[in-house]
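Forwarding the complex inputs:
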Amino acid sequence: MPKVVDHVERRRELAEAVWRVILRDGVEGVSVRNVAAEAEWSTGALRHYFGTKEELLSSATQLLEERAVARFTSKQYDGTPREAIRAVLCEILPLDEERRTEGDLWFAFAARSLVDPRIAKEHGPVFDGARELCVRITQQMAEGGWLYPGLEPDVEAARLHALIDGLAMHMLMRRVDEQEALTTLDAHLVQIIRDVQQY
Amino acid sequence: MPKVVDHVERRRELAEAVWRVILRDGVEGVSVRNVAAEAEWSTGALRHYFGTKEELLSSATQLLEERAVARFTSKQYDGTPREAIRAVLCEILPLDEERRTEGDLWFAFAARSLVDPRIAKEHGPVFDGARELCVRITQQMAEGGWLYPGLEPDVEAARLHALIDGLAMHMLMRRVDEQEALTTLDAHLVQIIRDVQQY
DNA sequence: CTCTTTTTAGTACATTTGTATTAAAAAAAC
DNA sequence: GTTTTTTTAATACAAATGTACTAAAAAGAG
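Prediction (whole assembly, four chains):
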């Protein structure tokens, strides 16, 4: 029998090499040879796992999706409502290097998804994950009586999602810094959270 | 003397060809030959106006910027405060084909600007134009007494900007439709505009 | 060890890429 | 008409690209 290789691990390894290339040169810098060189593989070995360049990009998107969605869905509330919600939302903002990397990739793939249906399909769950996170937040707020009176949970989820993605994008474009983003987010939370003295 | 050619017009013509290529194939589809074919020019003629591919992309970004900023800064208020503000903000959302095209390009260039400082520099004014629009709105609201009490004009400008850009992005990604976007925008306006009976 | 299958390396090939060069065509000044 | 300069077309070329192919290497089963 042949050498036993963890295919899942190999594909992850390759996907991460794709990431590094994208972060350095953008999606346009992704070529079979570039990725192989980045991973220190031969093009032949790479081709053994990925038949085409498209599969390579798909795999990189999928890995990003898995990680992001896992992070979004694993977070739990604790602390005061405002602190908890703020902490959850901060998972989306590129506040540290890891999340900035994820954000850069998310942005690159989002732009590519506009002209590449295949990427769009694989990128969709990232949007859905963030949206579900926002829906979960506003629904739990409504149930706990923390949602500011008169606000609709679903509409507020959409608004929160647009705001947080817009902020994230502005940060990725380096036009808004961390402090301004948090100030903006806090201003929003003030308006949607009803302050309860004892919770 | 030579044939008299309107260089500005030529460059505009070429930039629009670049746009069409980007809309069809993404930024990665832009090559000297592709653009020349799209414009029905020879590569030699194209090269007479643009020495390198980078200049070609720069020119396309600049044209986008000029148009977008012109649209943003030309709008004037009229009608009730809410109607006027809504109308101005709707200039940013991709609600018709022209603005969707602009939006698609804006998105493509924004993503590219993360790894290409040159594009970033030329793309910056588009961000600034939208931000100034938001600042103008919130400041005029504050001066006219329409801003909901307790809100800071500058913070609200940043929040409005993030929200509108996030909504625009979600629409461009085809994950949010026109109706949901307007519902979300209206929910936001309700919270930042103080309803004055007589204005 | 021998066999069998996976994994890898290296190379090949047709396209496409950015850029440069060349010479022809066009058009106004004289 | 001739001259002069811009504009255009066509081609050239090295480099990079996606994909395919071939044979060597690796590693467990018998």
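Chain A has a mean pLDDT of 90.
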